[in-house]
Amino acid sequence: MRCYGEVNKFGTEAVNCGITAVSFSKSGRLLFGGYDDFNIHAWDTLSAGEDHSFELPSPHDNRVSCLGVNPKGDALCTGSWDNYLKVWA
Asked: What is the distance in angstroms between the CA of the first residue and the CA of the last residue of the chain?
C-alpha cells in the first residue's frame, strides 16, 4: 500500500459522535462504521464522502464496539455494549 496523503474522508454533520469500529466490504466499495450513538453507517467509497451513507435499521441499544464482514462478503456482524451481536445480510 502506498499513501502519499489523504485520499478521501467520510462524514456528515448528521453524525457527530465517536467512531468505534470500521471495516470494508469484500469488494471495497462500502466502508462500514460503528458509532457511539448506537448506529452503523455504510459509506460508498466511490463517492465524494459526504451525504452518501445509509444507516442500518434497528440500531443497537448501546455503543457499537466491533464489526466485521464475513469472508464471502454477504453478511456484516456488529457487536455492541448492549450484549448483542447482530448479523446483517
From this structure: 30
